[in-house]
Amino acid sequence: MVGKLDFEASLSEAQFRAVTHAKGPLRVVGGPGGGKTRVLTYRIAWLIREAGIAPEHILALTFTKKAAGEMKSRLASLLGEEIAIGAATIHSWAYRFLCIHRGKHAEGILGTWNPNSKNAILADARQYFAWQKSVQAAKVDIAPAFALHTVSRAKNNGVSREALRAEAERSSDHKLVRACDAWVEYERWQERMKVIDFDDLLILANELLTCKDTIERVRDQHRVILLDESQDTNLVQWGVVRKLAPPPKSELTVVGDYDQSIYGWRGAAAESFLEFVQDYKAETVTLETNYRSTRSIVTTANTLITRNGSREDKVLEAAGDEGVTPIVRVEPDAGVEASRGVEQVRRWLAEYQPGEVAVLVRAWWLTRGFEERLLKDRIPYQVVGGPAFFGRREIADLLAYVTLSVDATKDAALKRVLNVPNRFLGAAAWRAIERHALKRDMPGLAAISDPGLRWPKQYMRDKAMDLYVLVQKLRRFEGTTAELLEHILERTRYLAWLKEECEPEEFRNRKENIDEMFEAAEEHPEPADFVFYAEQLVPKKDDAEEGVVLTSIHGAKGLEFPCVIVAGCAEGILPHERCEDVEEERRLAYVAITRAEKELMLTSATLYRNRGYTPSRFLQEADLEVPEYEIATPDSGGEAASATTVAAT
Which of 260, 289, 299, 492 is catalytic? Predict the structure, then answer.
């Protein structure tokens, strides 16, 4: 155990006030780089050492498992010993809570749930399988993925099945009504299988917290609660927190920053963070000193975010020096943008390690150009928060078809498209093909047409032969890669299938990736050349070397890097053309800028995928010097005829 902690000497004035807040609700507005994790850690240490709160009575709720682990590690380092506080994500807390108290609610799903099973929580492929079964049982014509995403969104917004059905019937949304029918079957399936999903954890915890004796016991256990990233908490999560620590006199500390609220699209109720002071009569401490970034970066961020009307009055001040002025570049097209960006990366790597450099994008399709240029320059890179471009589901599907058109012996490609789009050819069909191919020493495609193959069911042969005929036609196709892709989309009706499988926003994002694939196809008109090019960019499982980080701005939340490029700063990309809330897009740009510690580069192009763009309004709103650029005028051949020079104002 370490000696007495000198809290005042270790903290700034604002941090010290937050850490030593003695009684009642507290709201900490933690600006970027303001040391909010430090405040949370020191506050827990202060509560234990100075306020005499037993560690087991403290509950710290974090946004990610990584954040919970980091908090425990920092606290152990600070106090010189492992302290048994409850630091967890709200989902993991809810899981433990339900395990202990589920006997109080022995009806429905929770009554049959077996938490001791290794598959107690439905996720990923198993959850999708459950929805497949539920849609079939309900005899409704909707994609399982649509039902899954629709119901998940409803649960996270606190909308019951009855309320969702009533709304669907009022609006005559028959697809939504069918999703509610499938929801009934899904719950029946859950009861039979004794499982719940991640959304259920919070729904059921909220229900169980209405039991008087249960809530009294839980409140006695969790006498002090700290909630991190409060602006990203959804309504159901807020419901759990309010039951654990009801207003107005609970010992509840919430930490967040409305200026960094970027998850409204998935149900985050950031307004609850703003309203916390009124609801709880809470004291507010604002952390306005940024210890992360240079003064020039902080000034850029401040200037931009003050354009938002819905925010609290807060101006960051940098603790560091002036630093390098952020660079703004406007290039003629996406290829040049990526090339010039990688040139800057190479200059930074003379001083920094690859993992200290990041390229942030608003739309995932923008990573392809950077992946290509980084690979060409032999600069190691890692895609964080999502797959590399050619590893994305829709890209890998279409690439598999192109691969078979070039080389029909590629069994990995055949396996990928066997049931894409859905032909009802699952694992049993592939096992039959694979066994026969090994027995006869032939490729899988040849095995499909071999009369000796014994199919588990007759319909499988018919469906597989349809695929066989399609691949044979693709092999005889004469045309460019782009024309081949168009032919594949038309013959398979892939886009219509994908649209049924995805929520509208997810479909649009995947369609953007496909559009970018066509851009790559234009650059490699021979299908064989295209396949070779794509194979170089497909991530290898053994590529574990740390490299330049490519990630989305959303994925970069909570991260920081000495050097940052924000690519695609164009009107229609950032802010996105489909955005319903420009202020949230501006907050997204603010988050991107404040990820940089030392150097920042913001780039744009006037031509993406044969479509003209202008630089983002956010560049001028941040009072950055936007260079002169030429307005790109795309023509039918895909070349840009840049005609008019514009002096940015």
Answer: 260
Choosing from 27, 36, 329, 368, the catalytic residue is: 36
As a whole number, the mean pLDDT across the chain is 91
User: What's the token pair of residue 586?
Assistant: 């501006």
**Selected catalytic residue, list 229, 259, 516, 599:** 229
Confidence of residue 118 (pLDDT cuts 50, 70, 90): confident
Q: Look up the CATH superfamily of 7-94+206-287.
A: P-loop containing nucleotide triphosphate hydrolases (3.40.50.300)
36 a catalytic residue: yes
Choice among 37, 112, 480, 633 that is catalytic: 37
CATH 3.40.50.300 fits 298-388+542-646, yes or no: yes
3-state secondary structure 67-131: HHHHHHHHHHHHHCCCCCCEEEEHHHHHHHHHHHHHHHCCCHHHHHCCCCCCCCEECHHHHHHHH
Say which of 181, 199, 200, 228 is annotated catalytic. Answer: 228
The residues, any chain, with a CB within 8 Å of residue 420's CB and separated by 6 or more, are 397, 400, 494, 497
Tell me yes or no: is domain 391-537 CATH 1.10.486.10.
yes
| Arithmetic mean of pLDDT, 139-145 | 89
pLDDT in the model for residue 3: 58
Token readout for 468 is: 């066989």
Does residue 228 have an active-site annotation?
Answer: yes
Q: Give yes or no: 190 in active site.
A: no
Beta bridge partners of 360: 551, 566
Give the model's pLDDT for residue 237: 93
What's the pTM?
0.89
Is the model's pLDDT at 567 over the cut of 70? yes
**37 is a catalytic site residue:** yes
